[in-house]
Amino acid sequence: MKVSMFHLMPYRDVPDDFEKTHRSAWFTVKWSEFADAQKVVDYYKWTLDELGYAAELGFDGVCVNEHHQNCYGFMVNPNMMGAALAKMTEHLGTALVQLGITQPFLDPPIRGAEEYAMLDCMSNGRVVAGMPVGIGGDYAFSYGKSPVEQRGRYQEAHDLMKKAWIEEDIFAWNGKYFQLPMVNLWPRPVQDPHPPIWVPGIASPSTWDFTTDNDYLYAALTYAGISGAQYAIDGYWDTVEKKGKEQNPYRLGFLLPVGVAATDEEADRIYGPASEYFYHKMLRLPDEMVAPPGHMTYESTSNFIKNRPVPSNLELTDHDYSYFKEKGFLITGSPSTVREKIAEICKDNHIGNLMVLLQFGNMSHEATKENIRLFAEGCLPHLQPIWTDEDWENRWWPQGAVRPGAEV
Amino acid sequence: MPTPTIESVEVLGGRLEMQVAVMGEGEPLVYLHSAGGLKWDSFMESLAERYKVYAPYYPGTHVSDPHAIEHVEVLWDAVLAYDDLLDQLGLESCRLVGWSFGGMLACELAAQRREKISKLVVISPVGLWRDDAPYSCATFTAIPAEDLPGILFHRLDAPEVKRYLAVPDDPIAEAEANLALVWALACTCKVIWPIPDKGLDRRIHRVTAPSLVVWGEHDRLISSVYAKEFGNALPNSEVFILSDTGHGPLQEDPDKGIPKVQSFLA
Q: For residue range B35-84, what is the model confidence (pLDDT) as tens digits?
């Protein structure tokens, strides 16, 4: 199994009463209210150092993403982080899991195609090209695009990016959303024909179809643990089976917040407050910010209004650490507790690409590094061998991402 | 309460079928609804007492075909759909009334088909911009649903406002009503996102119909300072500010508002 460290790069010092005084950690939270650029200088430095440290300790990949106008995580251009990480990890063969840019649906998508290609060359083929649909607010509020067009723009951006990577001739693109007279990408990705594409999903059946039909990795991203992702994962594997594709574990990615300490009790002490900071403050993302009118299709909107398939994030403040832990939203404990729980989840659900969020909430730089070290020493060696005794090919891993000494 | 009949009308060369609510007898009057969709209210009933009211559902907002919005990509498509609609309904000349989003569309249509519009009434329309009075599609979508009534209306206790905001007792009907509202916003906002300043200021001078601009003094969605902007921009116009009302002046104070509109239209 490939194990990568995910980072959100949150604001680690929001006011203690944030969830009582703010309806949202996104879009409507004002920078001028409490944010300090000098602190953010530290956050970016720490974030890069933490991901670099994980790479040095043997993680297979490092994951970054794109969000806007929030204190939950503001790597507004993950490819800038990726560029720094590419250089930092040059000797380590670490995958740069860009999960990913939402830029292509906003500007001409070739900008994203160019950046991924450039990063792929800079890293000699270590890029995962993430293609998230993105949340509605990033697109509609931060970047001013009509919500009802988001999915159409996503599809067209995807088609254009892929063609720009592989088409030998210069071509004109006359799409519904994008018109470009000359598409002639310089550079092209060093991976042939292009970097592996990962698509994050929560529970949308159309994403199961899209990823399966195109042979992309489906990344179940939720912060509600395996119970929160079970519907998506089961739906995905059903789709793979129905479409007659191989049940290769490497085609499924899964994200978990994880906290490791010397003992289970110590883990509760450290990660209880950090997880409450994360779930109570950072995930304050009300419905109207996730999905402005039209963000979902009519059918999905109807299902959402009538059946409420997922609870509102605002309800997270009704619960505390013990609930999050019991429900498996995050995995905390001693190295043996953590690795056993994660191994069981991954084996049961056929997960071949695991992402762990080892900095969450207000965890300090020191606490994060300790979490990374304990996970790398006590969990990683037990998790990476999963699936290696079976004859699956990981076609969703970047061709150039090979750790020194690791089996190809 | 009598209910309007629904007529289907083909526009845009047959690609789009629009649904039109029709009620009343007399000379024709076309009513263009707000971003929240068509709701037949007491103002429209009063219009239908004197005129034959045609109230088209904006594409996608009628429950029979939510995907109709796919035939409207940009504002120009929408204006031409309504332009076609006037022809298809066989209207030589009509009065045109629009509220909010519908007010902007009414201005566009009156600028486009000058000869067909005999009188124009716009009620708190979007479509123009002042730096000192900003508003956007986020003004009414990036807020909790429960805050929307307070943004829309100043007099929440007015009977017609209560009727307008009434939540159905039946949970299924309530969900259907929510869905209709959310999807209407999705469809209408498509052509005005993120800010409904789409060049009307460069076309509005073309309007020839005598026009009435109605605004609620305490409109929190789009400031009543825009009443003057529309008054200045519409060549032959009168401005009527209704005190102590918000974005729905004719729902909030029908006793003062509706007679004014009726006498202008007469």
A: 999 999 999 999 999 999 999 999 999 999 999 999 999 999 999 999 99
Give yes or no for B6 touching A (CB within 8 A).
Answer: no
List the single best residue of A148, A176, A295, A312 to mutate versus B (max B Cβ within 10 A).
A148
Contact at CB, A306 and B175, closer than 8 angstroms: yes
Which of B66, B138, B194 has the CB atom closest to A298's CB atom?
Answer: B66
In a domain, A200, yes or no: yes
Contact B186 A149 (CB under 8 A): no
Q: What is the pLDDT of residue B219?
A: 98
- Say if the Cβ atoms of B141 and A289 lie within 8 Å: no
The residue segments making up the domain with residue A223 are 2-383
Closest alpha carbon to A85 in A113, A41, A55: A55
Chain A residues closer than 8 Å to B141 by CB: 140, 147, 288, 292-293
Give the three-class secondary structure for B51: coil
Q: Which residues of A touch B67 (CB under 8 A)?
A: 298
Q: Average pLDDT of A208-219?
A: 96
CATH code, B118: 3.40.50.1820
pLDDT, position A407: 57
Q: How many domains does chain B have?
A: 1
Amino acid at A394: N
Q: How many domains is chain A partitioned into structurally? A: 1
CB–CB contact A147 B138 (8 Å):
no
Q: What is the CATH number of the domain that holds A323?
A: 3.20.20.30
pTM here is 0.95
Contact B193 A301 (CB under 8 A): no
β-partners of residue B22 are B5, B54
Q: What is the pLDDT of residue A300?
A: 87
CB of B178 within 8 Å of a chain A CB? The answer is yes
